[in-house]
Design brief:
alpha+beta, globular, binds flavin-adenine dinucleotide, FAD/NAD(P)-binding domain
């Protein structure tokens, strides 16, 4: 099978590896224009703190993601997957009680440490209600991940740095610029909204901003979380974020975004810091917060692989695996991800 993947963010990278693993001939096209994957903090957190629930399909997604990233590290000769302790600073007595209750439930046990006295009295200035530690969290260091893969695919002569142009496509036959493909997979992130073949889908664009800061006095051994996350990168550097602005594809960082992050960070620490970098990206989101994947209703060689939302790094490996198994072996898609859910009358 010969497959063209359009888009070299985490979605396109995971798809390309999965296709290669299953013996396909792959070409990866990327215009390196917007990569939400490059701006992301790369956090992998099994819990959703806002509602103190488990992340969607966590027991399937998490082991698959870890296994896939370890394999990609080996293949590319880069190191980017780092285990991490995420510590939630409770914002209220109610949140503490929620944790106390949930930590006893069998489905939460693999992801929540039982609260200890040390957690409750964690020595940080703004600890009024105690703290709780997440198990099995990690982060992907996005720069070596993206650069390592770019170098790897370039060395295999798979990667082409250019923009896909629909003027050269026959969607019926799968011929693009004179080459016939069995499938063309569009993993274009937020730009999937402008893909003329899939304009009927409700892909949304959700902007987010993130700061990289330097401070020698902020606690730097775990990722702290309240209103925002503080991710230690080592040597006094941290990523802090992020913001949410709906319905915009503008990727410029703003003063307002930086202020919001600084304000949220004050709920964790009042230590001083220097801003090293300020970036913005646009997440490809979906109204029901599930991926958006599947074959075009009329042109079966045209495939959408998008909608990774706010947790693309955790979701991409398994979703890529399921989509490739669907295309190569006819396995059914998970109905929550299948874009057909938006095509019904
Ligand atoms: C501020 C912020 C923080 C985030 N933090 C996290 C986090 O901590 N953990 C997490 O899991 N997720 C996080 N995310 C979400 C994550 O970034 C996304 O879920 C994920 O990166 C989406 O990946 P993608 O490959 O679908 O899109 P992208 O990363 O945007 O990649 C799409 C690629 O396709 C290319 N492209 C588009 N159209 C074309 C075309 N026509 N021709 C050729 N190339 C094309 C683009 O240039 C780009 O390289 C964050 C996002 C933001 C903005």
């Amino acid at each position: 099978m010969k497959v063209l993947v359009v888009g070299g963010g985490v979605a396109g990278i995971c798809l390309s590896h999965e296709l290669l693993k299953q013996g396909c001939e792959v070409r990866l096209l990327d215009n390196n224009r917007n990569a939400s994957s490059a701006v992301a903090a790369g956090l992998i957190n099994p819990l959703v703190f806002r509602r103190m629930t488990l992340s969607w399909r966590i027991s399937e997604l998490l082991p698959f993601a870890y296994q896939t990233y370890r394999e990609i590290e080996q293949l590319t000769g880069t190191s980017f997957l780092h285990p991490l302790v995420i510590r939630r600073l409770f914002a209220s007595q109610q949140e503490l009680e929620f944790w106390q209750k949930k930590q006893l439930l069998p489905e939460f046990e693999p992801y929540m440490e039982q609260l200890t006295d040390a957690d409750l009295t964690f020595p940080i200035e703004q600890n009024t209600f105690g703290t709780g530690r997440v198990k099995q969290a990690a982060y992907i260091d996005t720069t070596p991940f993206l650069e390592g893969n770019r170098t790897y695919f370039a060395s295999k002569e798979i990667l082409l740095e250019e923009t896909f142009d629909h003027a050269f496509l026959d969607p019926q036959t799968g011929v693009y610029k004179g080459e016939a493909y069995d499938f063309i997979l569009f993993a274009e992130g937020k730009d999937g909204k402008y893909n003329p073949l899939f304009s009927h889908l409700p892909l949304q664009q959700t902007k987010g901003e993130l700061l990289t800061i330097q401070s020698d006095t902020i606690y730097g051994e775990e990722s702290l979380n309240r209103k925002c996350f503080l991710l230690p990168l080592g040597n006094g550097r941290f990523k802090v974020g992020s913001t949410y602005v709906w319905d915009t594809d503008n990727t410029e960082p703003t003063e307002e975004g930086a202020q919001t992050i600084a304000e949220n960070l004050r709920s964790i620490t009042s230590e001083s810091y220097e801003i090293l970098e300020h970036r913005a990206g646009v997440r490809p989101t979906v109204p029901d917060r599930r991926p958006l994947i599947g074959k075009h209703p009329e042109f079966s060689k045209m495939v959408f692989a998008n909608g990774l939302g706010t947790k693309g790094y955790m979701i991409a490996p398994l979703i890529a695996h399921e989509l490739v198994n669907h295309l190569l072996h006819g396995d059914p898609l998970n109905p929550e991800c299948d874009m057909v859910r938006f095509e019904k009358e």
